[in-house]
Structure formats: structure tokens, C-alpha cells
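User: Need the bound-state model for magnesium ion:
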Amino acid sequence: MEIRTIGDLGEVTDKRVFVRVDFNVPLKDGTLTDDTRIRAALPTLKELLEGGASLVVASHLGRPKGQVKEDARMGPVAARLSELLGRDVEYRPTDGVLSPEVEQACQALAFEPGRVVLLENLRFDPGEEANERAFAERLSDLADVYVDDAFGAVHRAHASVAALPAVMIEQGRPTAAGRLLEREVEALSKLLGEPARPYVAVLGGAKVSDKLATIGSLVERVDALLIGGAMAFTFIAAEGGEIGDSLVEPDRFEDVRAARARALERGVLLELPTDVVAAPEMTPEAPRRTVPADQIPRGQKGLDIGPRSVEEFARILAEARTVLWNGPMGVFELEPFSAGTRGVATAIAGAGAFAVAGGGDSLAAVTKFGLEDGFDHLSTGGGASLEFLEGRELPGIQVLEVT
Ligand code: ADP
Ligand code: MG
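Assistant: Bound-state model below.
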């Protein structure tokens, strides 16, 4: 797959560039607790500014559902962006996204290289999530060029990632992916095309229902599927295993049985944990014991995969030449239940494979364990990376494809 990138835009000097970014950052009491997503967009923003452009930067933040929510305003983001860019970021809290003042401010950017306007939270306007053409048309009036660097949002058919670039293209204006989106597509495409084999996928996390589509698609592509985290208990319980009080989704038993049958049919190794660390409560003080994964006593919850499972997963990972990891093996946030995630992440980092990790919590684990260097790519978009790897057409990428 090939998409247009900043390099294809030509001169941006004196142009106004609309940059869709993913500044959906965590906020606590009005303070930004993690600016990773803002930093991730800096290469694109800086490159465009160095090229002599002015910028209209826009993102969604949280889920305000088409209404103005005071605690979802972009103020704290504007302040942090200004610090990181080392220049003024013009932001005004508005009653919605667009207003005559905002439109005027963007008009004034023409022939004013280096100036940056940050729009209010795109989701304050119901037109954003509705992918409304009228909203996209008004956004298109704010700039001459469109760049999408919001990988975390490309799987959604929302106005700023789908209708807006489509309108710009109709009007003959340049559109392209930013550097972050470009890197994501390049790295993830390696897993979709002809990955070096064996290709091993490691899936975990809390809910199997979130990742069933991914499992279904990966079973058609990988050589081995290693399943940990709470989602393993739905697989184990579906076969009649005793899982005590562990998290389980009985309404998914049929789905996971079907995935298993398909794996068997294709000769894909589908591995589940054989032992787990169990405790009566999800607290660091709770008494723990390691038990067989299909014989967890009543009153106990499986909260991490056990040492034998780590060893077995690591043995398979050592042979892998391509690895995809999404979802922690246990409640790694609590030290007593972190060994499984740490062990598997270390095995992936140490394998001589092309290794990609995705998912907010999985990336937090990679950082926590200091294993960043062991991965070839850390994908910034949880849902977007999974949908991309399912081989689906993503609206925000499709519109930028070279045809
Ligand atoms: P990611 O963000 O990487 O996609 P998920 O959001 O799917 O991952 O899942 C992460 C969450 O799953 C973590 O908060 C972790 O504590 C939880 N989790 C993993 N294993 C278990 C388990 N055995 N029981 C309860 N929660 C679990
Ligand atoms: Mg998560």
C-alpha cells in the first residue's frame, strides 16, 4: 500500500496547512498527565513550519458527543504544544468548533509563515462524528493543504479524517499523510504483506470481545497465536476448564471455539497459558498462588500467566521472525501480577524478529519495563492498528492512497 506523504506536497511556503493530529491526551483535573501524543506529532508540525507554512491544527479530545464540555476544551493542550514547539499557539475557547472569529483567525494565517492556530475540540461539533459534509466544507475553508497525522483516528469515518480530505481533493487541493501516519503504515504493512515466518502474534488484555475480529483475521495470517491476559479464560472456560472467579465472557464461547477450530484446520499453533497466578482480590497485598490454568479454585481470580506459560511462550517466540504483540498478559499495573507481561515482553524484545507492539496498555508496559529498544515499531493507535492488521480499508488512509 502506498499513500501520499508530506514529500509529495511540493512547496508549502506561505500555505495554510490543516493538520489533523491525535491530541486525545489524558487529562486529570484540567492538567495533562501524558504528552506522548503531542510529542509524536512534532516532527510533522516542525517540518511543515520549517517549510514556511502556517498551521491550523485540530484534534478530538475525549467523548463530548457533539456538545461543548468545559473539561474537554483544548486549552491545556494548546499550552503544552506551545511549550514543545517553542512558539505561540493561538487558541480561543469557542462555543463549538467554528465561529466567525476562528474563521477570521485562520484567514489571517495566509502569508504568515510560522503561525499556529489550534482549533477547539473537533467533537464539540456533531458534524465531526457524523462525517457531515457541510462541517467538512467549513473546515476546508480554513486552509489550502490537508495533512493527516492522526493515526489513532484513521479507522473512524469522521469528518476531519474522511469527508474533509475528500472535499479538499475534489477542490484540487493537496492532501497527504504526516510523518507519524507514514511510519505507521510502513511498519504495519510489513505484517500484512509477506511477513518473515514464523509470524507469531501475542494477544492479551481484559476483554476477548474487543479483539475477536483481530483473532479471526490473525488466525488466517500467523503461524502461532499466543493468548494470555483475561481473554484466555474465555477460551479455557469454553472447553470446560475451571477458571474460578476470573474474568470471562460466556456469550463469546461459540466465537472462541470457532477460532480454535479454524486454527486447528489451518495448522496454526494456538497456545493458551498452562498455569496462572491467582488471588482472591485484585490488590497487591492479596495472597497469591500459582495454579493450573484450568483448575483455578472458586473464590480465586487468575491475574497473570504463570512461569511455565512464560517459558512456553518464550520458547515459541525465540524462533519467531515476525512478532505482533497487543494486550498485557496480566494485571501488570500491580507489581505482583506483572511477571508474565514482563517475561513475554522481554522474550519478544530479545527475539531476532521484526517486532511490533500496539495498544495503550501494552505500550505502557514496554515503557515501564524499559524495553523500547527491543521493538522495531511501537504503534500509537490501539484500535486503528488492530483494524489495519485485519486488512480492513480504513477511511482516513484510503482517502490518501496513491491510485
Ligand atoms: P491494550 O491497551 O494494550 O490494547 P487492553 O486495554 O486490551 O490492552 O487490556 C489491558 C488491561 O487488561 C490492563 O489494564 C490489564 O490490567 C488487564 N488485564 C490483563 N490480564 C488480566 C486478568 N487476568 N484479569 C483482569 N484484567 C486483566
Ligand atoms: Mg487498553
